[in-house]
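Aim 2, interim progress. The first record below pairs a target sequence with its structure tokens.
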Amino acid sequence: MTRKRFGIDIDGTVTCPTSLIPFINEDFSLNITLDDIRQYDLSEALNIPAPHFKEWFDEKEPIIYANSPIAEGAKDVLLEWKEQFQLFFISARKTHLLQITEEWFNKQDIAYDKIELVGSHDKIQAATEHNVDIFFEDKHDNAVAICEELSIPVVLFNTPYNQDPVPEGVVRVDNWIQAKQWVHDWVSRT
């Protein structure tokens, strides 16, 4: 039997969605929490001019990614899944961050079949190339597009910034334990 292939976003999914907040608070003299972020575009959410925020993010990105905490429950679930499924981590990170990303995965002791940094939020081509059967995401429009374009289920990790309605086929979960349960049920049905 062929092992199912999982496409998994990294930031805000495998890493804790609060990863950027300490850096934002320090560098922009803010005192925000995840609950304060109601949209994915942080420059807009925080009322910081987009060019300024992009410059800041480009500079801080390697430090943030090297130090991102892992999402609660992710490690145990991913270690268990590695025995049963193929894991393809597909991220919008830029390709020059591959070494930092691989080092983070090694430090966290998370095995993978492939890490692909696509450099944009459009993950459909990579998901298609890796022939994934299901995708895990935190960005609302990515989840919807992947589900609709590829006709595969997408597990969307709930955050304050992704609360727009979702179509059938996009399943919301609050944590990795719920994702694991949903996947168990889904595998039983397929």
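The second target in this work package is listed in the same format:
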Amino acid sequence: MILDHRTYQLRPDSLAAFLELYGREGLPIQKRHLGEPFGWFVSQDIGPLNQVVHMWKYRDLADREQRRAGLAADPDWQAYLKKASPLLVTMENKILRPAPFFDFA
């Protein structure tokens, strides 16, 4: 198993708008293609502000590639991205593998 760990830095004062838009439009589309997220978090008061972190679990890189290709090809997702992208400053992505002694399957 692998974990796709994404951090989005949002423009100041856009966190609430992003969360509302994502919850209403983005999440349902992603769930159709990616399944349930492993976790979804918002930074608050300590450390970098205006950030969201979300994680998605996949069997392997091939599974991730296939599911994300389906998402990218979805016209609803492309329409959502046109609305959400102006709210973002940066995006960071990491692929995490579990340590040998930890199984999150």
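Residues 2-94 form a domain with the Alpha-Beta Plaits fold (CATH 3.30.70.100). This observation will shape the mutagenesis plan for the next reporting period.
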